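Hi there, hope your week has been kind to you so far. Do you reckon you could talk me through the fold, stretch by stretch? I've dropped the whole record in just underneath, so have a look:
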Amino acid sequence: MWDAILGILVIGGFFVLRAILATVFFYYLLPEGDRCPNCDAPTLRVESPWWNRLLPKFRTSWCYQCGWHGLLRHGSITPPSPSKQLTEHGDRR
């Protein structure tokens, strides 16, 4: 009887430990910031009340260049680039 209980505890403990290690591994596998993991373009934040409430340490993102959508970790945000119209025409004073 005790052998069965001990076996169930050991197997259950390994199962829980594996789940915790996989969660930590995949957390650090996700990119940090707002860059797309496929094409390295800045992504747009998408509001998803269900995901944002369930996983508050992640941000739901969508890449408008390649169409990727998924979760990213919070991190530094890419500063906006100057407008193309301003860089082409310069300052007209």
Observations:
- The longest strand covers residues 58-62.
- Residues 2-29 form the longest helix (28 residues).
- The mean pLDDT is 83.
